[in-house]
Design brief:
By secondary structure, this protein is mainly alpha-helical. The protein is built from 27 helices and no strands. Helix 4 (about 80-90) packs antiparallel against helix 5.
Length: about 500
Amino acid sequence: MARFFPFKNLSIPPKSRTPTTHFHPCNPTDKQVETLYNIITTTQTPQLLKHSLKSSQIKLTNDLIDKVLKRVRFSHSNSLQALEFFNYANKPKGFFHTEFSLNTMLYVLGRSRKFDKIWEVLVDMKRKDQSCITPKTVQVVLGRVAKVCSVRETVECFWGFKKMVKEFGVDCFNALLRSLCQEKSMSDARNVYHRLKYTFRPNIQTFNVLLSGWKSCEDAEGFFKEMKELGVEPDVVSFNCLVDVYCKGREMEKAYRVVEEMRGKDIDPDVITYTSLIGGLGLVGQPDKARHVLKEMREYGCYPDAAAYNAAIRNFCIAKRIGDAYSLMDDMVRNGLSPNATTYNVFLRSFFWINDLRSSWTLYQRMKETGCLLSTQSCMFLIRLIRRHEKVEMAIELWDDMIERGFGSYILVSDVLFDLLCDLGKLTEAERCFFQMVDKGQKPSNVSFRRIKVLMELANKPEALKILSEKMAAFGSSTQLIQEDKAEHEQSSSDFATN
């Protein structure tokens, strides 16, 4: 793994920033975004990418760059080619990337564990426009570092930002704690908090970060008490964290008492408060009472959003009352809310566990009609169910949709797809999907490649095998590929277990 603490002796004089120049201010079209995205994903070398960008004659604006990088992030595209695009856009004198572009680029690099490239970007950004490096940037980087590195390394990385961020204070400290809460254990976050709380004076956000991570009611109550002892008054977020931990601990009476305490302090429960109650009632086996909360919150002038409906829908799916779940989704639409990827994911998860491919596929067709794209986890539920039923046509249709519309993770889905195609001897289809993936700049796993290789050898197709081998070799040495395969497997397990 690349080292990622290179600025212990770094001393770069800050440069004053001139006003941002927005080149060619015009609204980017979907066609422009798609054109640039295709250039990033299909060109094989930095030189070809720069040539293609110049030849496209598309005038880059901050808004256009933001949208292209967002597209790259959610399609799991090649991080190094995306970085070439990012650097190319940053070359013109007087141009400054937005904070969104910077953070998106760092997230993409962090996901592929290119930590050395992250620091190169940060050093360059400090020279050109340090104001873009914010506590949000710290959060983005630390979140990816903490996912694969130790607590000690994560804290070292945090201190590396001291020379990067203009105001290295409690907001950055909160970003560190949030990363540890999300990617490590709460005991790790608590230890770091106690070690550094005298260096960075905790504020309400500090306690809210820690409160949001506790799964133990006793731990949450302890931090709530410490907050009050330090004279930090809880706000609606603090109370919501306590309500949530009680609900997840199935302590519904305590949760309702906190809600009453909120009202006694003239703090109105918000949609997050009610969503926690809905989830908690589902955990104690009361989905009907949870549905009633949707009506009750309206009476208090708080209108349910998609997340509140999703929580209620999840309750009925867990109870295997799919009809009631569908009824709530229809109710969402009647109230002007569109079912989102999370809504559909709840159903697809349920259909996966009850082995209902027909309902899953019907729901997927509904998603396509409404323009809602599958999340990576939903793709995995669907492709694994398809694999179980050996439906090649469905698998190919899902894959073609992913290629055409750029959703889901090609790397994760392809392993299951190639497994199905190779098991059934569908060499032509496997070869086509392999080339589609490579053309997108994505590396099929060594396992998938070896399976296709065996089929080609059996089918006596040496020329095709030679081409495939050359394509794989373009991604790096065998040692690198093995390491990347390991990372992909870990990511696959993590993504499929999420939610």
